[in-house]
UniProtKB/TrEMBL annotation:
Domain of life (superkingdom): Bacteria
Signal peptide segment: none
Presence of the UniProt keyword Translocase in the record: yes
Keywords: ATP-binding, Nucleotide-binding, Translocase, Transport
Keyword Nucleotide-binding attributed: yes
The name this protein goes by in its record: Iron complex transport system ATP-binding protein
Organism: Halalkalibacter nanhaiisediminis
NCBIfam families tied to this protein: PRK13548.1
Biological classification of the source: Bacteria, Bacillati, Bacillota, Bacilli, Bacillales
Length: 490
């Protein structure tokens, strides 16, 4: 529907769009992204007929743009420019009426009933109908933006060109506008070409995205392919992370601010450890990114503080989360920011050990009781609930930067080392009599400071994985030996 063939746009001798060739399909939501000055607006202006390329050709619906009469082009294509115009002394109704100009036959011909219907519909679609008698100057920036969109819609175009349409709009109006554009593209085959600065909005709404840099095409593809971390970092010159959107299959881009000037002490040395029979409490002035199955703060979360709380074997609360928050509150600990686990195991037996000087910097905490030890392969034979709670809680703090996949590998490494330690300590499932692989209520946390060396993987083949495995294995054995000694078993 729109074809650009070797299009070059210049200001004086400066090329701002450089030999660009592309096709935009009917009914497509097409995004243009790129840094400031990369030529997005210039390309949009050229497609809208507002700038004439010095080279190449733009074809709209099989006809060269240069062959269109201006009224015919205005019926086909409407533009929402970047800067709000300053025709402030017009009423909103009059501004939107201008959108009907291409349909008027003579100078003095008034509005037809149909024109009025189209204007009313455009005002309603953009939620500006209530402003129809107001002057443009009486509206806010975002309301004016929506009136100008209504004017573009009043042209009843097949193609809508929008330059940063969400500028000035609050979150709900941004979403409303983009949802409406997407809906019109899908239901009315409206072709939407939008310059967008917000990469996540572009990722969520566009069928395809053109990434421009210095007037050249860097990529033109679906959001999944264009939103490639390295490519965006090169073009925008910033550090960023790509994640997956939690509920739709679109990439999400998050930016990484320049790091705070790092304290001379390592993140592990900055952990203050407060240990008593009632709890093991670690806190830091620095936040750690943790993946855990904790009672409070489970999943991936950032935390300043960590609590491993001892509870009695007969602990029972209808709502352990609320009970846990109350406990923290009563002890002057901020519940919002504190990862919290519980264990019936005695904390006197717990091990807190640190890696050696030549290994990756890691701190491990393990508390363990094994009265409810279980062999996972026999667990289906057990009753759902046993009152004897032991629980092995394992914390691993890693001084380094880990991608999320490495957290999962670290989790496997911890589990493997734990199972081997239980095996070598001869811990058995009291019901089946077979060797235990854990207890029935174990919990685990992997935390990384996200500063320091980058560890792409954390399986047992890697130096960081080897050290995690060694510390967890040794710490687990020591803790279990303390437990056995106190219980008087060998
Ligand atoms: N009227 C003009 N005269 C001369 N140079 C211009 C003019 N308008 C834009 N330019 C230059 O052309 C280049 C491309 O500008 P353009 O507005 O197309 O970029 P953009 O990608 O839309 O940028 P932004 O994200 O800042 O809106 C820039 O270097 C800009 O300075």
């Amino acid at each position: 529907m729109i074809t650009c063939q070797n299009v070059t746009v210049q200001y004086g001798s400066m090329k701002v769009v450089d030999e660009l060739s592309l096709e935009i399909k009917k009914g497509e939501f097409f995004g243009i992204i790129g840094p400031n000055g990369s030529g997005k607006t210039s390309l949009l202006k050229a497609i809208g007929g507002g700038m004439i390329p010095v080279n190449g050709e733009i074809i709209v619906d099989g006809k060269s743009l240069s062959m269109y009469r201006s009224k015919d082009l205005a019926k086909k294509l409407a533009v929402l420019p970047q800067d709000s115009e300053t025709a402030f002394s017009y009423s909103v109704w009059d501004v939107v009426s201008l959108g009907r100009y291409p349909y008027q036959k003579g100078w003095l011909q008034g509005m037809t009933k149909q024109d009025e219907q189209v204007i009313t519909e455009a005002l309603k679609q953009t939620e500006t109908y209530q402003f129809r008698d107001k002057l443009l100057q009486q509206l806010s920036g975002g309301e004016r933006q929506r009136v100008l969109l209504a004017r573009a819609l009043a042209q009843e175009p097949d193609i809508l060109l929008l330059d940063e349409p969400t500028n000035h709009l609050d979150l709900s109006h941004q979403m409303n506008l983009l949802n409406a554009l997407k809906h019109w593209a899908q239901t009315r085959q409206l072709t939407v070409v939008a310059v967008l600065h917000d990469l996540n909005m572009a990722s969520l709404y566009c069928d395809r995205i053109l990434l421009l840099d210095k007037g050249k095409m860097i990529a033109l593809d679906s959001p999944t392919h264009v939103m490639e971390e390295g490519q965006l970092e090169r073009v925008y010159g910033v550090s960023l992370n790509r994640k997956e959107h939690p509920s739709v299959p679109s990439p999400l881009i998050t930016f990484i601010p320049e790091r705070e000037r790092e304290n001379q002490l390592s993140a592990i040395d900055r952990l203050i450890i407060d240990r008593s029979p009632e709890r093991i409490y670690m806190k830091s002035d620095k936040k750690w990114k943790a993946l855990s199955s904790a009672v409070l703060g489970a999943g991936f979360r950032w935390h300043h503080a960590f609590v491993n709380r001892h509870v009695n074997k007969d602990y029972l609360a209808d709502d352990p989360v609320t009970e846990c928050k109350t406990y923290l509150h009563e002890n002057g600990i901020d519940a919002n920011d504190t990862l919290t686990m519980m264990t019936a195991a005695r904390l006197e037996d717990a091990s807190i050990i640190r890696s050696g000087p030549d290994a990756p910097a890691i701190l491990v905490m393990i508390s363990a009781g094994t009265s409810n030890a279980v062999d996972a392969s026999m667990a289906y034979k057990l009753a759902d609930w046993k009152t004897t709670v032991g629980t092995i809680n394992t914390w691993v703090f890693i001084e380094g930067e880990l991608p999320e996949a490495a957290y999962v590998q670290a989790l496997m490494t911890v589990t493997e080392a734990k199972v081997k330690a239980l095996h070598d300590e001869g811990i058995r499932d009291p019901v089946s009599g077979t060797l235990a692989t854990g207890t029935s209520t174990d919990s685990v946390m992997i935390a990384s400071a996200q500063t320091g060396p980058y560890y792409e993987y954390a399986g047992t083949i890697t130096p960081v994985g080897k050290e995690i495995a060694r510390l967890v294995y040794e710490g687990m054995r020591t803790t279990i030996q303390h437990y056995k000694k106190r219980m008087g078993v060998s």
